């Protein structure tokens, strides 16, 4: 996959290196030539100096034949302008823009742009860590309305089945890891000692999950 990453800060450089290490053809755009030092000596991609919303620079970076565009600069405005140019002028199939201000996300989603807000994600993770300290909260979806929670089977649920933990519309067991192997359970699957349970949980149902797991309220 050919990918252009605009911005070589902490996020942009990390995304670029991850993609490059996986064998993707990566071109990085940044107006600061010194910023590209974050990529390290093993980076196999290409570097283009300039502004990521300049059409001449984008053309030099090969946007007319690229498969994906990532706007990851430190400016929300620059990211959105560049993302819209990539999406609507050059018709890049996959466009993702990083946003610092999560309040803007809904606006840009209506424009058909995929956005990622590290601010929103970070705040949600801190909130979950403070208010649900015994739960291992992993991936979140939307604005944090739904989370994936990982928890080891408590003693009182051993030999109980999945159906007894599922609550339609609030929480559902999506997978179980047993002896280092994950599988998707049925409603009749019994929990065993040492199982790691993975649940999709509505944020408003976190307290209910803690009660069902026999955890003390904070």
Layout of helices and strands, plus pairs?
Blueprint: E1 2-6, H1 10-21, E2 25-30, E3 46-49, H2 55-61, E4 68-71, H3 76-89, E5 94-99, H4 105-110, E6 114-117, H5 118-131, E7 136-141, E8 146-152, E9 171-178, E10 181-183, E11 196-202, H6 206-212
Parallel strand pairs: 1-2, 1-4, 2-3, 4-5, 5-6
Antiparallel strand pairs: 7-8, 8-11, 9-10, 9-11
Can you tag this structure with a few keywords?
single chain; alpha/beta; Rossmann fold; 2 domains; 6-stranded parallel β-sheet; 5-stranded antiparallel β-sheet
Provide a quick synopsis of the model.
This protein has 218 residues and is α/β, with parallel strands linked by helices. Helix content is 28%, strand content 28%.
Can you walk me through this structure?
The chain has 218 residues and is of the alpha/beta class. The protein has 2 domains: 2-118, 3-Layer(aba) Sandwich (Rossmann fold), CATH 3.40.50.720; 127-212, Alpha-Beta Plaits (2-Layer Sandwich). Helix content is 28%, strand content 28%. The chain has 6 helices and 11 strands. It has helices spanning 10-21, 55-61, 76-89, 105-110, 118-131, 206-212; strands spanning 2-6, 25-30, 46-49, 68-71, 94-99, 114-117, 136-141, 146-152, 171-178, 181-183, 196-202. The strands form 2 sheets. Strands 3-2-1-4-5-6 form a 6-stranded parallel beta sheet, sandwiched between helices. The radius of gyration is 22 Å and the shape is elongated. The termini are far apart.
